[in-house]
């Protein structure tokens, strides 16, 4: 007869207060966004969707939301391509300077954001690209790439490099090796990395603040400006939107992982049925 370890019950009990401490302050923005007051107050004076309607009716806020989504899209595409390619290129290979290359890829996670923001601002000023969404998206892609690289490298940890060499020796080309050997293994890492890249980009404020313009103002920059000069419930609405997007992304990732696990569990049953 199996006995239940008391530590198995103690860990969830100890984790619950930490979970509530992290989640409750984040969820407070939801009732604040539905506040009936003209200013941010808590607890809410009354529930109303006036602030939500005002947010989507305000061209400045919707433009900032669109700018954030565009820059995040650029960051996700470039980050996924560059990060996954770097992880695949370095997988199972040993050469002089490999540690230096890995350090260069991970450097954006270590260098202070304000230093990167100043460097990108000076670079894009020199090439005349400041004032649009493209430089913001490119800057966000640099800080998003390490996350994609790490998640893809973690997925590749279980892949034997001999499988790649075997596929190549049997005549598989580069695209075939990627499609049939690498992609099934790294797909969970790519999904996780894309979600991390999107979250990092849509939440980035310092770089966007350096390279903003009247036609390229992201949502965090708009929130930062209005907090200083115009403290309205629209700020809480934008915060609630960011929380909602992050929650949906997390749920999609969990659903993808659970579906993949259920598929992998069913594969042995299908193989045994065929044999």
How do the helices and strands line up, and which of them pair or pack?
Layout: H1 6-27, H2 29-33, H3 50-57, H4 59-90, H5 98-110, H6 113-126, H7 133-156, H8 161-169, H9 174-203, H10 206-210, H11 219-229, H12 233-274
Describe this structure in words.
It is built from twelve helices and no strands. It is mainly alpha-helical. Helix 4 runs parallel beside helix 7, helix 7 crosses helix 9 and helix 9 packs antiparallel against helix 12. The chain is globular, with a radius of gyration of 23 Å.
Mean pLDDT: 78
Specify the biggest β-sheet: none
**SSE succession:** HHHHHHHHHHHH
Q: How much beta, percentage-wise?
A: under 5%
Taking pLDDT < 50 over at least 5 consecutive residues as the criterion, the unreliable ranges are 266-275
Radius of gyration: 23 Å
Q: What is the helix fraction of residues, given as a range?
A: over 70%
Number of beta strands: 0
Distance between the termini: 36 Å
Shape: globular
SS field, number of helical segments:
12
Q: What structural class do you assign from the helix and strand content? A: mainly alpha
Summarize the structure.
This protein has helices at residues 6-27, 29-33, 50-57, 59-90, 98-110, 113-126, 133-156, 161-169, 174-203, 206-210, 219-229, 233-274. By secondary structure, it is mostly helical. The protein is globular and about 70 Å long.
């Amino acid at each position: 007869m199996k006995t239940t370890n008391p530590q198995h019950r103690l860990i969830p009990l100890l984790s619950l207060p930490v979970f509530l401490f992290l989640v409750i302050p984040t969820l407070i923005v939801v009732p604040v966004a539905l506040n009936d007051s003209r200013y941010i107050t808590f607890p809410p004076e009354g529930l109303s969707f006036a602030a939500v309607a005002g947010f989507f009716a305000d061209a400045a806020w919707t433009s900032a939301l669109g700018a954030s989504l565009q820059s995040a899209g650029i960051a996700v595409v470039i980050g996924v391509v560059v990060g996954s390619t770097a992880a695949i290129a370095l997988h199972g290979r040993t050469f002089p300077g490999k540690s230096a290359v890995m350090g260069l890829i991970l450097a954006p996670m270590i260098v202070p954001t304000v230093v990167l923001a100043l460097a990108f601002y000076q670079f894009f000023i020199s090439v005349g690209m400041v004032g649009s969404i493209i430089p913001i998206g490119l800057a966000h892609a640099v800080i998003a790439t390490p996350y994609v690289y790490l998640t893809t490298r973690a997925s590749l940890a279980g892949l034997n490099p001999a499988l790649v060499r075997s596929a190549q020796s049997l005549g598989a080309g580069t695209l075939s090796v990627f499609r049939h050997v690498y992609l099934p293994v790294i797909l969970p890492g790519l999904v996780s990395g894309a979600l991390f890249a999107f979250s990092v980009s849509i939440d980035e404020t310092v770089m966007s603040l350096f390279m903003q313009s009247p036609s390229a103002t992201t949502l965090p920059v708009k929130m930062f400006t209005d907090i200083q000069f115009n403290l309205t419930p629209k700020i809480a609405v934008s915060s609630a939107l960011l929380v909602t997007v992050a929650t949906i992304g997390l749920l999609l990732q969990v659903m993808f992982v659970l579906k993949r696990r259920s598929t992998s569990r069913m594969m042995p049953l299908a193989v045994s049925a065929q044999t």
